[in-house]
Amino acid sequence: MLFLYNTLTKQKEEFVSLNPGKVGMYSCGPTVYGYVHIGNVRTYLLSDLTRRYLEYLGYEVRLIKNITDVGHLTEDDVAQGDSGEDKIEKAAAREKKTPEEIARFYESYFKQVEKELNILPAQYFPRATAHVPQMIKIIEALVEKGFAYEKNGNVFFDVTKFEDYGKLSGNTLENLKVGARLEEHPDKKNPWDFALWLKAPAEHLMQWRSPWSTGYPGWHIECSAMSTEYLGSTLDIHTGGEDNIFPHHEAEIAQTECFTGKQFVRFWLHTRHLLADGKKMSKSKGNLYTLEDIKEKGFSAMDLRLFFLSSHYRSQMEFSWPALEQAHKNLQKINDFVLNLEALTASENSSLETFDVAIYREKFEAALDDDLNTPLALSNLYELISQVNSEITSDKLSSQSAKVILTLWKKINSVLGFTLLGQAEIPEEIKRLIEQREIARSGKDFKKSDDLRALIEKKGFILEDTKDGMKIKAVGRL
Ligand SMILES: [Zn+2]
C-alpha cells in the first residue's frame, strides 16, 4: 500500500486513484526565461519518482507538465501576481530577442536537462501561450458566478468569496491579516485578491484580446486551465516546490474549485527547498547552480540524480560538493555491482547456494510505499550490494542467482532511473586513450602511462589492473 504525504491534509494518506488503474498527475513546469537550476531539478525529480513508482505498481500515469511562457511577473514571489514586469519580456529585452525566442530557447534547455537526468518526459508539455482561450473561458465563468470582478480592464479573483481560501497553505484570510505586507493594486477590493487578467500597457509585447481588455493572463490561471483541459476537473496528484504552495497553488485551488464546483486535487506533493551555503538556492543570492556547473567540476547528471535520491524529498537538503562526491562514489559502487553481475551471468558458475532476492524486493517496496523514502531504499540497495560482493568474493554466487538479482535490479532501477554505462558502451575516444596507455606501459614509459590514466579518469572512467588483465569501469557519464 502506497502512502503519500498530502500537503492538503498534512498527513500521510493511502493513495488510491480516482479511476482504477489510472492516475492523472500535473506538475508545475518551468518559467522559461532563464536556465533551470538544480533546485528546480529536485522538484522535477519528485514528479519523475512518483510517476515511476506508480508505473512500477502497475498504474497507467498521465503526466502533464506546463511551460510558463507568459504572465509570470517579477514580483510574483512576494505579491499576488499583479506587479513587476513580465519575466520573459524582461529577459527578451536583456538578450535582445523576441519573447518567443527566449521562451523556446529556455524550454529546450529545460528539456535537455530533464533528458540528461533521465527524467521520463511528460505525456504533454502544454504552453501557456497556446491556452489563452481556455483561461478566458474560466475567467468569464468566475466573473459570471461572482467569484471574480473586473475594474479598468483588469480582472481579480475575490478571495473573500471562497470559504476554503487558505486550506492548503494555512494562509487563511484571518492569518493573512497579521503582518500583511503588500503593494496593493489600485483596482483590487482586498489586498489578497489575485490577478486573473491584466490590461497590457501598449509597449507590452505579448497581449491578447479578451472581453475585458487587450492584455495577458495572471500567472496562476494557466495551471488551472491546462490541468483541467488535459486531466479533467479532479486531479489525483499535483506536484511542485514548497515555494509554490503560496500563493500559486492556493490560487489554483480557489479559482478551479469555484469554476468546477468539485475538489481540484486529491494529493498535493511538495519538495522542500534545496539550500546552498545555508540559504535557499536563488538567483538573487548568487548561490545558484546549473547542471553545467556540476559537469564542469567533473560530475555527471547521474551523480546529481543519486545525490537527490539520497535525501527524502520532504527534507530540506543542503547542496555541497563533498555530498556530490559521495553520491559519485555510491554510483560507482552500483555500477560495479551491475557489471559484476553481468560478468557472472555469462560465466558457468553453478554454485548450489541460492540467493533470496524476495526479501530485498519487499524492503524496496516498503521503503517506497512509505512516502517515497528513497534514502531507505538506497541503503537497502547498498546492503544487497555488500551481500552480493561478499558472495562473489567467496565464489558462492551462481550465474543463475546473478540473473535473478539482475532482474530485481532492473525492476528497482525502473524507479530509481539510473543510466549506467556498460563495458560495451565505452566511447571510441576512451578506447583510443587506453590503447595509447597500453603502448606506453609496454614501452615502460610509466610517466606517460600515469598521465594517460589520469586523463581517462578525468573523463569519468576508471582503469584497474587486475590479475585477469585490465578492467575499465564507467560511471554513468554521458
Ligand atoms: Zn503551476
Task: Give an overview in words.
The chain has helices at 38-56, 87-95, 99-116, 132-144, 173-177, 219-231, 245-260, 291-296, 301-309, 321-346, 358-369, 374-393, 399-416, 428-442, 446-458; strands spanning 3-6, 11-14, 22-27, 60-65, 148-151, 154-157, 194-199, 215-217, 235-241, 265-271, 274-276, 279-280, 317-319, 461-466, 469-474. With 478 residues, the chain is an alpha/beta fold. The protein has 3 domains: 3-271, 3-Layer(aba) Sandwich (Rossmann fold); 323-419, Anticodon-binding domain of a subclass of class I aminoacyl-tRNA synthetases (Four Helix Bundle (Hemerythrin (Met), subunit A), Up-down Bundle), CATH 1.20.120; 424-474, no CATH class. The strands form 5 sheets. Strands 4-3-9-10 form a 4-stranded parallel sheet, sandwiched between helices. The longest helix is centred in the C-terminal third of the chain and has 26 residues, at 321-346. It is globular, with a radius of gyration of 26 Å. The protein starts with a strand and ends with a strand. Zinc ion is lined by residues 28, 223, 248.
List key phrases describing it:
478 residues; alpha/beta; Rossmann fold; Four Helix Bundle (Hemerythrin (Met), subunit A); 4-stranded parallel sheet; 4-stranded antiparallel sheet; 15 helices; 15 strands; binds zinc ion
